[in-house]
Amino acid sequence: QQQQQQQQQQQQQQQLLLRTRVRLSFVCHSQGALILRAALGTAAFRPLLPTCHTLLSLGAPHLGWLYGANAFVKALIRLLRHHPRCAAIRELTLRDALDPHRTLLYRLNVTANHLGAFRTVLFAACAHVRAPQPRGAPRARACAPRAVSLRAGAR
What is the pLDDT of residues 5-59, one digit of tens each? Predict the structure, then answer.
């Protein structure tokens, strides 16, 4: 009976949000985008899914961190991966489960991908960062004439 009451409350909240035309947009940087994607799959967030509008992900390691920027970063990640309080490092390096299909990042990208709840999803990263983006994510690049006009100060 308690479950039924919770479901009714969630339905009422969802209907209220839809009637008030609330649109939720998120701007996430780095691991914050992964935290949001994990939250999207929780029961607490489910009533809000219909109100999701835009996700702007800035430099997030959606497919993990398999390629270190330099030797120092690689060594640091290797060291922290074994620390008991650094579960996030194990998750980012896909070492949180023996079977790769059971890792958090695999589940976020394949089995529990809630990005479809958003009307607009934008992934942005610096060109020098070699962090891969989710499969099928479009790659935005400025065309040559626009890039030139930006450097010249034109609008």
Answer: 888 888 887 777 666 777 889 999 988 998 999 898 888 888 888 889 999 999 8
Sign of CA dihedral 87, 95, 72, 75: positive
16 C-beta neighbours (distance < 10 Å), count: 11
Identify the bridge partners of residue 55 per DSSP, sorted by sequence position.
26, 121
Secondary structure (H, E, C), the chain? CHHHHHHHHHHHHHHHHHHCCCCEEEEEECHHHHHHHHHHCCCCCHHHHHHEEEEEEECCCCCCCCCCCCHHHHHHHHHHCCCCCCHHHHHHCCCCCCCHHHCHHHHHHHHCCCHHHCCEEEEECCCCCCCCCCCCCCCCCCCHHHHHHHHCCCC
0.70 exceeded by pTM: no
**Ramachandran sector of residue 94 (left: φ over 0; alpha: ψ -120 to 50; beta: rest):** left
Q: How far is residue 33's CA from residue 108's CA, in Å, rounded to a whole number?
A: 11
What is the rounded CA–CA span in Å between residue 17 and residue 148?
44
Q: How many CB atoms lie within 10 A of CB 3?
A: 7
Q: Measure CA of the first residue to CA of the last residue in the chain; give whole Å.
A: 60
